[in-house]
Amino acid sequence: MGRINGRVAVVTGAARGIGQAIATVFVQEGASVVVADMDVEAGQATVAQLEAQGGQALFVRCDVGHRPDAEDCVAQTLARFGQVDILVNNAGVARDASILKMTDDQWFDVLRVDLYSVFLMTQVCARAMAQRKYGRIVNVSSLAGISGVYGGSNYSAAKAGILGFAKSASRELARHGVLVNSVIPGAVDTDILRGLPESVRQEKCKAILAGRPADPLEIARVVLFLASEDASYVNGQAIVCDGGRADKL
């Protein structure tokens, strides 16, 4: 029996990268998964992969920073599976620019998708979870939310905001049986990292004691822990998954 057997999980930004890895691990551990993403083609392909592994999955096209979409996502989840047990707030975008040149649109686009969506999806899912007195919410933040990142003040602000929000949410929702935790990845081997110049990738790896970026599955396994009963006494915490950053030692 899997570690989250019989649970129903909503994973945002699950069409690729870390989100797809989380959805894959969840299905392997017995959960039904809702793939919430804006990319219809990639999202449907992910669902097909999950079903090919014997899992139950549903794709919902969802702009997680838009309330009607968030509410529709939960409605479709309840209609298909009857419950929401786990939410993983993973969706995110980047719109890099220096502070001196950043536009309002660049600032607010990132805050809407990377931070407001965490509040929004938490609110709509927690309402359903509270009715059953059970829920696990895991937020995917970033090392950028702790250390900052050059040219990404909007992204860093959003990822830092996630950590503060999660602390507050853990206090408010505990009495409803809902636990809220976060993971803080460092460099991860995703399309975004692969799209950087080789020299930049090598420089990032030099600052990691492991000497390499994380595989998305390595992040997914930490998320699985927080979503499972193995973490039944863990609430309001943030686990750093950065391979050991040499520049912090």
From TrEMBL:
Keywords: Oxidoreductase. Gene3D superfamilies: NAD(P)-binding Rossmann-like Domain (3.40.50.720). InterPro entries: KR_dom, NAD(P)-bd_dom_sf, Sc_DH/Rdtase_CS, SDR, SDR_fam. GO terms for biological process: monocarboxylic acid metabolic process. One of its GO terms (molecular function) is oxidoreductase activity. It holds the Pfam family adh_short_C2. Residues 7-191 form the Ketoreductase domain. PROSITE patterns: ADH_SHORT. Belongs to the short-chain dehydrogenases/reductases (SDR) family. This is Unannotated protein. It comes from freshwater metagenome.
